[in-house]
Amino acid sequence: MANHIAPSPRAGGWRSPHGLLRLSVVVALITIVLKMLAWWLTGSVGLLSDALESFVNLAGAMFALAMVTIAQRPADDDHPYGHHKAEYFSAGFEGLLVVGASLAIIWVGVDRWINPQPLERLDWGLGLSLLSTALNGWLAWVMLRSARLYRSMALEGDARHLLTDVWTSVGVVAGLALAHITGWLWLDAAVAVAVGLNILVQGGQLVWESSQGLMDSALDAEARSTIDRCLEQCAEQVRSEEGVDVAFDSITTRRAGERSFVDLHMHAPGQWTLAHTAQWRTRVEQALMQALPGLQARIEVLPDGMATAYEQAMAQQPPSTN
Prior knowledge:
Elements: H1 17-42, H2 45-71, H3 86-114, H4 122-150, H5 153-182, H6 186-214, H7 221-242, E1 247-256, E2 259-268, H8 274-291, E3 295-303, H9 309-316
Parallel strand pairs: 2-3
Antiparallel strand pairs: 1-2
Helix pairs in contact: 1-2, 1-4, 2-3, 2-5, 2-6, 3-5, 3-6, 4-5, 5-6, 7-8
């Protein structure tokens, strides 16, 4: 069975996490200039709120780039399992930035709602906003595809933040267009407040997901189903080739950044030699890595009917009364 390994995050040129996060920094600088110019031309607090979020994009992209670089450091004496979880700090930090920006946007929006001001040169302002929106939308689409390929939490967090910015900009443009058509200046402030509430929710979700990653969450249901199907196929293959049964239990999974892990027991016939058992163990590992690229499998081999000392001790404990 072939052993499929995920591409290195440093490979793939500009489409790698490092390359795309560098590009994200450049795009954030461009959109800051475009949106601040749009706000300066129109005086719209909605466009100002959109521009403020672009500063958050810049800070988030820079922090994400630093964390991705740290995550790729090899394991050392102090971190024997590697530095992969550094990416979760990136997503959590960006989530906190989003929350802070949303509160600032809501504050400015409420003030403008109370004290509305006329809007000017909306044609140029909306045009610049739409240009920056198209740029962010394209980058977010590319980053989401690469995030799935490299299983990068930092890249996914930055891409989702950019998508939030895209929808924010679309809402701002729609609100300003309505304000211009109807003459209701309060719509500009209402859009700013709505934008702030929307990105407040998005920031909270990013913080929650990063906290779950730091707490060694199990793989999602789809990945776990893939593992179970693969083990069933391996058991059928052993039965077909050897005429005996093997069993798999004590399956635990976790995710750390771009890496996924599974630990399990393989119960093999006691009459098998150590070398023969090791051959089948290797084939099962290869099948698992082929089914889920990037997965690291640790398989402990036990004779049929035997359990580890830990399992025996746990079985002897009285049931919990909670």
